[in-house]
Structures are given as structure tokens and as C-alpha cells.
Amino acid sequence: MAGGLPEGSRDLIGARQRVRDSIGVLADEAQAAGVTLAIEPLHPMYASDRCVVSTLGQALDIAADFGPSVVGVAVDTFHIWWDPDVVGQVERAGREGRIATYQVCDWRTPLAADVLLSRHQPGDGVIDFEPISLAVMASGYDRDIEVEIFNEEIWAADASETVRRTVEAFGGGMVSAYHRRPLVGARDVEALGLAKLASGSVWQGWYMYADGRNPRRSLQESHATGSPNDFMELGYDFGAALTLDAVPSETWYRLRRQHLFLAEWGPQMAVMPAALPDDAAEPHDLSRLRWSVRSDGQRGFLFVVNHQPSAALPSHDDVTFQVELEEGAVTFPSLCVPGGAVFVFPFNLQVGGVELTWLTAQPLSILEWRGLPLLAASAIDGIPAGFSTSVAATPLRIEGPGQWWCLEAGGEPQARVVILSDEEGLRLGAGLELAEQGFLRSAPEPVRVTELTWTQVAPAEAAPPPTSAPNGRASVPTDWSGAAQFDLELPEGDGTLSLEWVGDIARAWDGQRLVSDAIHNGRAWRISAPERAGASRLRLEILPLHREAAVHVGAGRPVGADVVSARIEPRQRPVWGLGNPT
């Protein structure tokens, strides 16, 4: 905090110069102690008594006379959100390497009598955190985010409740709340996961790896219990990697391909810093290719993420990646990077006693096959797969999936390489197993679904008028009198009931027992056998969406209320593990 105007002074510009002079006095001592001084601009309402530095631009201008490791800036959303150039200045701070800390809280009016205590939980005010946070993350900032909430009511609240609401505000998952129903695809998750690694992350966690349900009614957070979001009572649909009934989705296979890579090379990569090219694309620039490198100076990995949810990124022709290393540059062959492509390619990769200078396929794992290391890699659709090495690479004729090579030095085999197709790479160890004779596809059991019929008992009537909580977020309707009703006969046996439907919200009843409920988000409504608990018939209720309901539906707003299809899918067993015969 830079301090306000001296008593009796009106010289704001001069006061800022004195801040610069004072930092100059401290800079040498800070550098000697290994401490970074951070200039924190405060909201202009504090300019007279607390801080004459009011914008990030002013703070960066002062810091410019010193090295970024000595003088940086604090990015505090409470103080800078109002600035028309806030994103541009955060991006500037990132380019200059001066973001020392990122602090978040929200702004809501009316302000308290003591404006210092007018901070609020993220999501409870008017600050749009997304563009600011994206700009901070794009800078490579990977340290703590400080949730700095000066508010007496929050200080008096239970600490666990404050933590819960903070996590909730940051969107720990992509669950369908009533007012916000994102549709996140498998490629979106794959791109985000790889982008985190490309930015220098050493922690890859998934908030919800499997969908679930609440074990009984009245446990879910809701507007009625004071939570900012409203949900159905039982359903907890995140569109996660594993469905409610433990069936792997496409997301599961795409994450598993990353997990195989991390299991093999994660410890090496954890100590490799991330570096962006000198002409790196700005966060909101959709026209330029996004790529980065993680390296220890001798070897490493090239990351490319050319996919973004809700935006079609263009293909890029004749792209030549060059990575500067301590002992010279590694140059990849010219490539066409298709729109939607997401991958990691290694350089100077060690396989047994052999080094691959570059590989234009995504490495999966190093297995052992016939007494030698076997590098298994996955081609990326639209990119020719290949590699370069200083030793002899002899193609092998192996029956089954993949292209094979034997790497020889001094006339002796040292290692082998197999490059699988993009689709086969997703199935490695999960339907594609390594055996003594090569890779074998394990034939999945045929899925014999049972199509069901249903009877409409009552048509939909007018949707109830929309309501909302004090925070303005739409609430789940409680008046079901206008719901369409359907009877569905169920066969004996287990399996998952999968329903395609249109409408706003839905419930399934076995007599007086609520079996399952759902919010329409574009995904199938899955009701597992344990949920049905032997029911022979279900009564379905589906409410139409009111045309004025303030909700966002990623799949598009549904019209009407109806069942489109109903089927029983036999219970499937997830496939775990990776075959690695010796």
C-alpha cells in the first residue's frame, strides 16, 4: 500500500513520484534478501488517505525502473475491476513478469459505512472474474490465489461455511445448477487438462471424476437453505468421466490417455518450467496457434492446444516448431495443425539407451516387450506420425494395431517404438492389450439394449412463473401442477434406464418414493438399477421451461415437455489397468 497524500497536499502526481523514490530506497535491500516488493493499486476512493496509486498501469509504470524479481504488482480484483483497461493492464503485467500475487473478492453496493469492510464472496457482486482470471493464468502465474474478504459478517460466520461458499463460487465442477447448465464435451476436458500442464501445472486434479446422487432427499444445497445456487434434490450430474452407473464416457478415455503420459513422465516434467514463445497469442486471440514448452534445458515436451469450447479454432498450415536448448535447437518437421487438435510431443526423449530427437505422436507409456523397452505413442488425427533418432530404425512387421520399429545401435536392438492410431491410443490398456505377439483388441461384450415404450398420462400445461433468489439466480420451480406425466413399464433385471427427453426439469416416482430427478442439460438422464430398487413401473413428471426463465442451457433451450426415447442398457464393467507382459 503506497500511502495517501501528505497532509495539506493536493499534488497527486508528486505523491506518486515519492512512492517511486521510496521504493528505490528499499529495492537494493529487498533484492539482497530475495524479497519481491509488490505495489498494490487501490480503488481511487482511497487515493487521498490510503494509496495514491489507483491503477495497475500506474503501478507498472513505477515498477518499470526495477527488475521484475525485485518490484512487482498485486492484482486485486476489488480495487481494479472498474478500470476500462483492466484486462490489458493485467496482460501487460504478465508480459513483464510482475504479477506477485492475485487477490479476489467481489464488489457490491451499497457500500458499508467503513468501505474497507465492503468486500464480498466471489459471485455475490458485480465483478466479472473470468477475463481477469484468464489474463492472470495466461501470464503463467501458478501461485496461490488469495481470497481476501474484509467483511464483518463473513468474519463472524462459520469458517467451514466460508470455505464451502468460496470453493462453490470458483466453480469446482461443471454441475448443472438450475440457472446455469454448461455442456462440456470430452474434447473440452481434454484441452483444459493439457492446457494446465502446458502452463506449468504440477497438480492435475478432477473435482468430480464420477457422477453421483444424494442418498436421500433434503440434503442438497438450495436457495431454500441459503445457498447461492439451486439444484434438484437427488441428481448430481457433472458430465464426469464415469457416469452414475460407472460406465466410462469418452471423457474417461481422453483423460486416461493423459494419465498414462503423467504416470510415465510426470515426475520428470514436474521440475520442468513452462515457457511460451516470444510471439505467444493473447488469451482472447482466436486466430493464432497456442503452444508452449516444458523443458529442463536438455529435453522436454511441446504442448499444442488448438481447441476451445464454444469456438472453432482455425487450422494452421506449415507450422515449424523450434525449441532452443542448452546444446542447440531441436526443430520439428513442418506440420499442419488441424482445428481442434490437442497434443503433447516430446523432444530428446530417452527410450532405454536410445534418444528420439523428436516425435510427432503423443507418448503414452514405456512398456517392456520381448525383453526390451517399448515406447507406445498415439498418432494425432490429421498430423503425420514419425520420429527422428541418430540410431538405425528398422520397421517391423507385427500383426495387429500400430506401426512398429526396432531401434538398433552397434548392430544390437536397444528399444522398440509403436505408434498407434488416434483411436487405438485412446484404448491402450482398455480394450487394446499388449501380448507376446503384439497388441490384441479385446472384443467388448455386445450391448443388447432393450427399447421401452411409455404412455402419456397427462400433457404439459403452462410452466409456472419464474422465481429467483435475492442474488438474482433463477430458482427451481416448486409447482408441478403443469407437468406432463408419463407411465413407463420396466422389465425385470438390472441395467441402467437411459432417457432422452426435452423439458426444463423432471422427476421419476415409484409410487410415493422419489427415485431420481434431473435438470435438462443435453445429456441423457440415467437412472441406475440400485436407484430403481426393483420398481416395475415409474411415473415420470416433466415440466416445460418458461420462456422468460433466466437460465442458460448450453445445449439450447428446450421447447415443450416430452420423452424422446427410453432404453435399458445392460450393466457394463469398467476396464482398468494396462497390460504389460514381460
Summarize the structure.
By secondary structure, this protein is of the alpha+beta class.
Question: Layout of SSEs?
Answer:
Layout: H1 12-33, E1 37-39, H2 56-63, E2 71-76, H3 77-80, H4 86-95, E3 99-104, E4 106-107, E5 119-120, H5 129-138, E6 145-147, H6 152-156, H7 159-169, E7 180-181, H8 186-198, E8 212-213, E9 235-236, H9 250-269, E10 274-275, E11 291-295, E12 300-305, E13 316-319, E14 322-325, E15 328-331, E16 335-337, E17 342-351, E18 354-359, E19 362-369, E20 372-378, E21 387-389, E22 392-396, E23 403-409, E24 412-420, H10 422-426, E25 432-435, E26 438-441, E27 450-451, E28 454-458, E29 484-489, E30 496-502, E31 505-510, E32 513-519, E33 525-527, H11 529-532, E34 537-543, E35 552-553, E36 562-569
Parallel strand pairs: 1-2, 2-3, 3-6, 7-35, 20-24
Antiparallel strand pairs: 4-5, 8-9, 10-11, 11-12, 12-17, 13-16, 14-15, 17-18, 18-21, 19-20, 22-23, 23-24, 25-26, 27-36, 28-29, 29-34, 30-33, 30-36, 31-32, 31-34
Helix pairs in contact: 4-5, 8-9
Tally of helical runs? 11
Which residues sit in consecutive blocks of at least 5 with pLDDT less than 50?
A: 576-582
Which strand order do you get reading across the main beta sheet?
10-11-12-17-18-21
How many strands?
36
Strand content: 25-35%
The termini sit apart by 63 Å
**Biggest β-sheet description:** 6 strands, antiparallel
Helix percent band: 10-25%
Mean pLDDT: 90
Overall 3D shape: flat
SS content category: alpha+beta
For the CA atoms, what is the radius of gyration? 28 Å
